[in-house]
């Protein structure tokens, strides 16, 4: 059984991968074939849609990076971890917590929650 931090690190690596072909390979490795993702702003129901969400994040926020801000916590087939998102080498502007259901060591579903957004100007 893969530890929680390794799975969370693989997930973050997908969101940070700029190369399209490499990202698709990482998604195929980390996500179960029948998978889903949902957060307050986006939804995906398969690997290709997950890839499209990540691509859209790269297009909308060039130079931003995801980082883990807590260790992963695994209980059986459940996983949770918190992340930050913002300009590289800066304090994250957005923070969130994701809860995942695993299928073996792959992500079956991820439910994302936003914990912190920048204050409106």
Automatic annotation (TrEMBL):
Pfam families: SnoaL_2
Residue ranges occupied by any SnoaL-like domain in the UniProt entry: 9-85
Top-level taxon of origin: Bacteria
Coiled coil: none
InterPro entries for this protein: NTF2-like_dom_sf, SnoaL-like
Name of the protein: SnoaL-like domain-containing protein
